[in-house]
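Predicting holo structure, fe (ii) ion bound.
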Amino acid sequence: MKGKIDLYVGSVTFAGFIALLAASRTQRTDLLDPIMIAVLVGLACLAQRVPVFLFRSSAISVSFAAVIKDRDEHIKFQVADLPMYPRLAVLDPESTRTLPPQLAAATGMDAMTHAIEGHVSSEWNPHASAYALGALRLIRDNLEQAVAHPEDDDARGNMLIASNLAIQPTSSGAIGIAHSLSHPCGAYYDVPHGVANAINLPWVIEFNAAGGEPIADRYREINELFGLEVGGPGDQVGHALAEHVRGIVTQLGLPTRLSEVGVPEEGIPQLVEGAEGDGCTLVNPREATAEDFAELYRKAL
Ligand SMILES: [Fe+2]
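Done. Tokens:
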């Protein structure tokens, strides 16, 4: 880890140096501000051993966890420890401007998944809830704009903040089985994490919201935030939110079916095994059996 951090810091400094050199030769003084920031931050980090993470995608880099993909064993697992928290994160919308739209959309949906799962998890707590709902407001107001108009720095910046807020519930253990379903999809079939979450999340919302009034009430708070129906039984509340999420996924141009991203029906037994063993399963608000996981995969297929 130390070597990786050093590499990161060294890269920041080196990139800043090269860019500064290029700017001086091309008279592009407009490049100097971000470059100088990179140089100064890099030098400061070299001097103080402060880890720096520049956001381009998911906010996992500002949590205390990292996800490791074992290609031989076909598993994605988390390692987490407090020293892995960075002391500094740079949220620079300029750095995301050239992100391909599909990647921007997928990482935005990952942020939404973290926020929704964080708000309904069995590990719910007031802090996690505040972060999750704050993130969802920003996602509601900025995700589609940020993807459709990459030149909109406000929208991009707000999504960086949303992503940063959305990961915080995960750091207190508040997450759920959309992630449990998605990790094996990535491990076995290389489905990008955010794409898998975008597909699986609506089905998990419907499954969880039908699991009792206390769980449904959490979803009611999210529905209210999105201006959706909050009354009626839990399955109705869940369906309203799930349909809304499906609409966003479609609008963003992301796949809505696992079969579209290379997951075959015969792969479901292996995927179920992976989902059952995933750490996120432990904190889902509704207990999910092997048959529940198989049914969720079949629905998402
Ligand atoms: Fe995630």
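The beta strands are 52-54, 65-70, 75-80, 88-90.
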